[in-house]
């Protein structure tokens, strides 16, 4: 199968996912792979190590660059079409601001276009009208779509009942060697929240839950790392005893070291399709405490190294976190996480699933 894997984003989960998938597909003797990538991509040098044909597209790095680059979209669309002429299917690793402007042209030209859909509904706080317009344009152009969690698949089926779906799990991508874990001092528990700070990620729940936890267990600490305004999401969180907030972007090669310094990852989301950082944590043997929302429950089945709160409340989250202080619980969760995490890094199995789905869809015409 000849696959053009397309991702014009610069960084984050889409770049990680596309790289992992590209590495797995490039290793397949039955796949002829070509890439279309942003020149500004954070992982571009790693992509280049694959030694496959690659189209490097100059996109943008900031808002001003975005505006200045808009007139170039017709030429970029034409160039993508030329590459698509040599492919059996065009797979979009993750949506980009320009995807809805380009994807319809692929369909008009008769090219099979299959987007990987990470989110099928806008998160609370997203601009719903623009979000729905963007996804609608992509789905209208699609021959099929890839869903990375059961909730996403269900939402897509409601939105486009006739559109074939390929259900694929989200594997973990660790771009560097696993650093040695640093043991915590006796009586300490180092919690980590990692990711963009957005309202739907429940930092206000985490604030109230940690306040309760710290009162009962003064050895607990919480590190909050990611881009965003923590005060807008959870006023007063940074002022709590034991809390350290780092509002910054973490490059892909810095994520393993960040996780290695944590005893547990906390995902206190109010809503979620799935989480990219949960498989990464499990792959490093780091247990996860999460709220039972969206695809998080599917990522943390019993025995997978995680604790699901009983409800999406601060009290339930505090109770779930307190379980980590019970004798033997943290050690058991670490062992479960290591076992579950090994399977979460199986990109070859993910590629098998994708190729089987693509073959089924393309064979059906």
TrEMBL record:
One Pfam family from the record: Glyco_trans_1_4
Q: Which domain of life is it from?
A: Bacteria
Give the record's keywords alphabetically.
Glycosyltransferase, Transferase
Does the keyword RNA-binding feature in the UniProt annotation? no
Asked whether the UniProt record includes Transcription regulation among its keywords, one would answer no
The name of this protein is Glycosyltransferase family 4 protein
